[in-house]
């Protein structure tokens, strides 16, 4: 498919400039894609491993919670943990990986100083609950890491897809189109040139024949 | 550029009550509609991280997609009371396929 332009010198020089820009853009985008892909593959592998691990541990911890609930009864369980001794907040900073903004998360714990993670008296609760909460506490940092990595992966996958579209559009549509059009204009101009030349030669020979 | 966010948990009561003890904001829901509303509400109120149990996530494709391309909030799936349903892992696969074009993770196992 060639572009619909007039075969003039003006258009030719314009198209040549566009081709140079397109090629440079293509190279840059391709580099970006490669680098993103490299980072993404590292990250996604980590993501996969971490998710399997966290899911396993979380399921286990939830099971223990269920056990605690079964042993203690749900009212007492709810009563015991309804007022946690601390609250957790999240600090999110931005990090830029190849123009993708990915979050960097950090837990901030707020609570009374020296408060234990067990926000209840031990009289009515069982050891199962202590164990379950303790376990959940230990998973927390991993859970956060998972959240951070998984979100990054989502964002990067999106950006990679976009970049790949652009690279392909440049590589397989824009650049060939420009090249073909440039070729067409060059040919057309050369043809005109040749036509002009033969016309001149013809005129010259006609003039000579008339016997000047 | 550092902002403070809260952490929310959405899911069936038995699964999310555990997170209450960690000091997160918990929203116990019974139906998918309620879950969608809870997630949307948390997103509006400036929660940076929302954990959602897979039990509901499997029917909330639309809502998940809406938050997928935003940096905040991050909606992260966690196994519910039925254990892991494999949706979280499937999502990772989807990401890989989207980015790379082929599934490079499962090839390793098989």
Automatic annotation (TrEMBL), chain A:
Keyword terms: ATP synthesis, Hydrogen ion transport, Ion transport, Transport
GO biological process terms on file: proton motive force-driven plasma membrane ATP synthesis
Ranges in coiled-coil conformation: none
Record InterPro entries: V_ATPase_D
Protein name as catalogued: V-type ATP synthase subunit D
Transmembrane segments: none
Gene name of this polypeptide: atpD
Gene3D superfamilies xrefs: 1.10.287.3240
Function: Produces ATP from ADP in the presence of a proton gradient across the membrane.
Pfam family, one: ATP-synt_D
PANTHER family xrefs: V-TYPE ATP SYNTHASE SUBUNIT D (PTHR11671)
UniProtKB/TrEMBL annotation, chain B:
Origin superkingdom: Bacteria
Keywords: Ion transport, Transport
Gene3D superfamilies (alphabetical): ATPase, V1 complex, subunit F (3.40.50.10580)
InterPro entries reported for this sequence: ATPase_V1-cplx_f_g_su, ATPase_V1_fsu_sf
GO molecular function: proton-transporting ATPase activity, rotational mechanism
Coiled-coil residue spans: none
Keyword Ion transport set for record: yes
Transport among keywords: yes
Family (UniProt): Belongs to the V-ATPase F subunit family.
Designated name of the protein: V/A-type H+-transporting ATPase subunit F
Organism: Caloramator proteoclasticus DSM 10124
């Amino acid at each position: 498919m060639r572009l619909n332009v007039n075969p003039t010198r003006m258009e030719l020089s314009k198209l040549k400039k566009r081709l140079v820009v397109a090629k440079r853009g293509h190279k840059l985008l391709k580099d970006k894609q490669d680098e993103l892909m490299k980072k993404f593959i590292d990250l996604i592998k980590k993501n996969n491993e971490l998710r399997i691990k966290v899911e396993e541990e979380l399921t286990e911890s939830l099971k223990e919670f269920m056990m605690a609930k079964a042993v203690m009864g749900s009212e007492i369980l709810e009563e015991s943990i309804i007022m946690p001794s601390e609250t957790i907040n999240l600090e999110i900073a931005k990090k830029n990986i190849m123009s993708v903004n990915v979050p960097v998360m950090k837990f901030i714990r707020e609570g009374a100083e020296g408060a234990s993670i067990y926000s209840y008296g031990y009289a009515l609760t069982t050891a199962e609950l202590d164990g379950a909460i303790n376990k959940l506490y230990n998973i927390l940092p991993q859970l956060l890491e998972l959240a951070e990595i998984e979100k990054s992966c989502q964002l990067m996958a999106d950006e990679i897809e976009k970049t790949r579209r652009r690279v392909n559009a440049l590589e397989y549509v824009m650049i060939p189109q420009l090249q073909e059009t440039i070729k067409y204009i060059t040919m057309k101009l050369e043809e005109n040139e040749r036509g002009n030349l033969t016309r001149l030669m013809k005129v010259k020979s006609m003039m000579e024949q008339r016997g000047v | 550029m550092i902002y403070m966010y809260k952490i929310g948990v959405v899911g069936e009561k038995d699964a999310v009550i555990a997170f209450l003890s960690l000091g997160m904001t918990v929203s116990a829901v019974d139906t998918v509609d309620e879950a969608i509303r809870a997630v949307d509400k948390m997103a509006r109120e400036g929660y940076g991280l929302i954990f959602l149990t897979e039990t509901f996530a499997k029917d909330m494709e639309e809502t998940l997609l809406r938050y997928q391309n935003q940096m905040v909030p991050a909606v992260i799936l966690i196994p519910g009371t039925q254990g892991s349903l494999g949706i979280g892992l499937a999502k990772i696969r989807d990401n890989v396929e989207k980015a790379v074009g082929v599934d490079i993770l499962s090839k390793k196992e098989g």
